[in-house]
Design a protein that fits this description.
This protein is about 45% helix and about 5% strand. It has about 300 residues and is mostly helical. The strands form three sheets. The chain has a three-stranded mixed β-sheet with strand order 3-5-4. A two-stranded antiparallel ribbon has the order 1-2. It is globular and about 60 Å long. It starts with a strand and ends with a helix.
């Protein structure tokens, strides 16, 4: 699927059938196909085949530079002499971070431990007036946790949870190290804001939730974040445009189109793909999908040009 970075459009352009997970050797030719658009970046999740294709394209770029006897100063990989930036889907990255924290402590400039979050939740549950009423067992305990829902992750890594965890540690008899976990939550909340903004103007108290511009403070924040994580420009951009919610919503629409239920065969899939594309051109959101409204406003071409 193609997605506009500045103007909010999306357009499905192609599909391929695969029996089982697609292999990297079959995926790579699809990614480098000429489609007549100027591609700025690719977005995908961290699936093994996706990573293998990206690593292969990065190696190809290295080899190209060696043959030309030039330094590899490209930010991504080269296709037809165009530098294409590699991006991983932000919601998937944050879910992966949370899922790892469930079973492992995190050590870098600060230490974070899921046990601190769990203890804070248990103590908060006992209060007659809860500090974080949105948190439930489904946010905290691995056995009950919906690992696919981004909102479940962001509600834990939120400003309110971080602040309360930090300033009530004495009242709640949390260990001193819980302050590091609170600082980590506040950092992740800011990082998610900076990578998920969808409006040009930031709301009060959330400066990183506005569009990225030369004066918005994102670059300064990202430079500091690089020191913590080891981890964009032009007028303003909305980083939330750079994820794959639009593709997941489109796929959910395909599975629910007509009477094909959730398991269409190949011929039914083709019929649905054509119908949804011509209908324009797609709803921006699919009820029951595991991602949010993708905020797109149509396709790149109007139907007359498309036909």
């Amino acid at each position: 699927m193609l997605k506009g970075i500045h103007r909010q459009w999306k357009q499905a352009v192609a599909f391929a059938f695969s029996k089982g997970p697609i292999k990297a050797k079959d995926l790579k030719p699809l990614l480098v196909s000429k489609i007549g658009f100027e591609v700025m970046a690719t977005v995908c999740d961290q699936g093994g085949s996706n990573q293998a294709v990206i690593n292969s394209l990065l190696r190809d770029t290295d080899e190209y530079c060696k043959k030309k006897n030039i330094e590899n100063t490209f930010d991504g990989f080269l296709i037809d002499d165009v530098d294409i930036i590699v991006l991983y889907d932000v919601p998937h990255l944050f879910k992966g971070l949370r899922n790892n924290l469930l079973s492992k402590d995190l050590h870098f400039q600060m230490n974070a431990c899921w046990d601190h979050i769990e203890k804070f939740y248990l103590l908060d549950k006992t209060e007659s007036t809860r500090l974080c009423p949105k948190l439930s067992d489904g946010h905290i305990y691995a056995a009950k946790l919906n690992k696919m829902k981004v909102s479940v992750t962001t509600q834990v890594f939120s400003h309110s949870v971080g602040e309360l965890n930090k300033y009530t540690k004495t009242d709640y008899d949390l260990p001193l190290a819980a302050e590091d976990t609170a600082d980590f939550i506040l950092f992740i909340d800011e990082l998610f804001d900076s990578l998920n903004c969808n409006t040009k103007t930031a709301p009060d108290g959330k400066p990183l939730r506005g569009g990225v511009s030369l004066t918005s403070g994102h670059e300064e924040f990202w430079l500091k974040a690089l020191e913590i994580l080891k981890s964009m420009k032009l007028q303003y951009i909305l980083p939330r445009a750079i994820n794959q919610d639009c593709l997941e919503n489109f796929f959910a629409s395909l599975r629910g189109h007509g009477r094909f239920d959730s398991m269409p065969d190949a011929s039914q899939f083709i019929v649905s793909f054509k119908a949804l594309l011509v209908n324009k051109f797609l709803s921006t959101h699919s009820p029951g999908a595991n991602c949010e409204n993708d905020f797109t406003v149509g396709a790149s071409d109007n139907l007359r040009c498309f036909l």
